[in-house]
């Protein structure tokens, strides 16, 4: 059964329609949470608020990456120019992500998902893994070992700036400028140490939630190399808390994204429910929460 045999033309048009207000709300929500968390931590600095800040900020940094993804697909807003602006200046540059470079690789992932040509295959092909292996991966994320590799990569780009392609130079300069602006703003307000929380989140919780997202989307699926998207990609049903901390903005509906990449992320749950009601998922099992998911991708 193909998706085109399930959706009517009207349903397809409705699901793929961009909503500027919904896109604006996504970006506004992310930045309200980021600013609010930093402000509350400044007002009530203690180990608990600092730990919570690092956890929540890591999830919002992933959310900014999701905005990069959506604007790269030109689906978050109706205007290509607005998509490009928001995918760079309101999201990507803050987490050192070059939207254009990211999309070049990501579009190959869509083209070759379910085959050995998928460039993301190394991220999940080894699953299922042992519980010990999974714990080691989580430990590396939370102790900043993987994040430090990312920081070193940024440092190498700075050192080798003259050798970078023009597009990469622009992305690096813009990313540094925005992060230095954040540091300067916090310093002027009397809280320069808050920027350390932003970096710590980037190096720890952000790396962990990014890994969990990658695992949830394609690891230990029924068949990595089947052309049926229902067999090579996964959607996970999650709680509101998991959506806040781990998988923002309906990103857990990854199967739906691969079925219809032109559907804006805020329409993916609607698409999921529509396909479920039509019987498209009668033979598909969906993990309920990331605890259930992580159990499924580990072996005794």
Can you describe what's shown?
This protein is mainly α and 300 residues long. It has a domain at 17-211 and 256-266. 63% of the residues lie in helices and 0% in strands. It contains 15 helices and no strands. It has helices at residues 9-16, 20-43, 47-72, 80-89, 99-112, 131-142, 145-159, 166-188, 194-203, 205-218, 229-232, 240-245, 254-259, 268-277, 290-296. The longest helix is centred in the N-terminal third of the chain and has 26 residues, at 47-72. The chain starts with 8 loop residues before the first helix and ends with a helix.
Quick take:
With 300 residues, this protein is an all-alpha fold. The chain is built from 15 helices and no strands.
Could you tell me the strand content as a percent range? under 5%
Q: List the total number of helices.
A: 15
Secondary-structure element string: HHHHHHHHHHHHHHH
| Mean of all residue-level pLDDT scores | 95
Radius of gyration: 20 Å
Query: Major sheet, described briefly?
Result: none
List segments where confidence is low: pLDDT < 50 over at least 5 consecutive residues: none
Class based on secondary structure composition and strand pairing: mainly alpha
Spatial separation of the terminal alpha carbons:
35 Å
Which percent bin holds the helix content? Answer: 55-70%
What's the number of extended β-strand segments?
Answer: 0
Name the shape in a single word: globular
